[in-house]
Amino acid sequence: MTFLVQQTLLYSIPLMIVALAGVFSERSGIINLALEGIMIMGAFIGVMSVRVLQSTEFFATAFANNDFAKLQLMEVLVMLISAAGGAIFSLLLSYASINLRADQTIGGTALNMLAPAIVLFLIRIIVNQNTLNMADGASGASWFLLKKSMFGFSADGESNFFVDLFLNKTYLATYLVIIIFIIMSVILYKTKFGLRLRSCGENPQAADSLGINVTKMRYSGVTIGGALAGMGGFVYALTTQGCTCNGDVAGFGFLALAVMIFGNWKPLNIAGASLLFGLFKCISASYSTLDINGDGVFMLDKIGISSYVYRLLPYVITLIVLALTSKSSRAPKAEGIPYDKGQR
C-alpha cells in the first residue's frame, strides 16, 4: 500500500502543478494548450542543467562523495532553472496571443509541435542519441532519492507507515511542489494581484476601466503558468524517468488540461482531481509490480488483462470524466478572446 501511495504521489504532483499553471494562464484570459510543450522544454532544460552542473567543481564533489545536502541543493537550483526556461518559452504564446492577437488554440498547438522538435534536435547535437542522460549515465534516483537511513532510521529495520511514506524512497521536489502549489493558490485567490488577474479573464474591459493593465496581467498569468509548467516538466523527468529526457512527457500536459477542466479551474478541486488521475497513471505504469494487499501477490498482473488496456486506462478515464463533467465546468468568460480596448 505504501508503494501505491508513493507512486500515485509521484504522478499526481507534476499533474497538479502543471494544471495550476493552466489556471494562471486561463484566469488571465489566455487559453494555454501549450502545457505539453512547455513541460517538454522544462524537462530538457532541467536534465541539461543537471548534466552541466555535474561538471562544476562544487557539485562534482557532491556526486563523488554522495553529499546529501549539496545534491538536494542542486535539485532545488535546477527546479528554478527549469521554471525560468518554461517562463521564457511561454513568452512565445504571450506575444502571439496578446500582441499579434493570433488564435490562441493554434498558438498553443504550434508550441506543442515546436518543443519536441527543438529538444530532439538539441539532444542529437549534444549526445548524438535519442535520450539525454546525466553526465555519468546513472539514474537520478540513485542521487536525489530520499531514504529513511538519511534521517537516522535503520535501512533494514521496520518503521511506521508515515516514515516509509514520507521519508523513504521519495523526492524533496515532491514536497517543494506541494508548498509552491499552496502558495500560488493563495496568491491567486487571496491577494490583490490574484483578484486583478482573475478580473482580466472575466471582464477585461471592466478591469481596464478601473486602471488595471490588462496586457500586463495577461503576460503575468502566462509567464507564471510557463514557470510552473517548466518546473513540472523537470519534476516529471526527475521522479518518473530517472532524470532523463527524450522529448516526451507521456501526454502529461494534456492530462493536466483535463485535470484543470475537471477541477473547474479551482486549486482545491485540481488537487483532488490530480490524485485521481495520478492513481490511474500509477496503475498504468506499475500494474505488474503493485502489491496492493501486502501479501506478495501482484493481483492486477494475475488478472490476465492485456498491458495495452492498462496503458490506455488513464486516457480513457480522462475522456469519460470530461464527458460527464464538461457541462458543469465554467471557464473564465473572456478566455480565448483577444482584448479589444474599444469593445464594450
How are the SSEs placed, and which strands pair?
Layout: H1 2-27, H2 35-54, H3 57-65, H4 68-99, H5 104-127, H6 141-144, H7 161-166, H8 172-190, H9 192-202, H10 204-209, H11 214-240, H12 252-262, H13 267-286, H14 299-302, H15 307-325
Could you please describe the fold and organization of this structure?
With 344 residues, the protein is mainly alpha-helical. The protein has one domain (2-253): ABC transporter involved in vitamin B12 uptake, BtuC (Orthogonal Bundle), CATH 1.10.3470. It has helices at residues 2-27, 35-54, 57-65, 68-99, 104-127, 141-144, 161-166, 172-190, 192-202, 204-209, 214-240, 252-262, 267-286, 299-302, 307-325.
Q: What structural category do the secondary elements indicate? A: mainly alpha
Give the CA-CA distance, first to last residue. Answer: 56 Å
Determine the oligomeric state from the structure.
single chain
Number of spatially distinct domains = 1
**How many beta-strand runs?**
0
CATH class: Mainly Alpha
Instruction: Round the Cα radius of gyration to an integer and report it.
Output: 21 Å
Q: How much helical structure, as a percent, in the residues?
A: 55-70%
Q: Major sheet, described briefly?
A: none
Q: Topology as H/E string?
A: HHHHHHHHHHHHHHH
- Number of helix segments? 15
Question: Unreliable stretches, pLDDT < 50, 5 or more residues?
Answer: none
Bulk shape:
globular
- Beta-strand portion reads under 5%
What is the CATH architecture term? Orthogonal Bundle
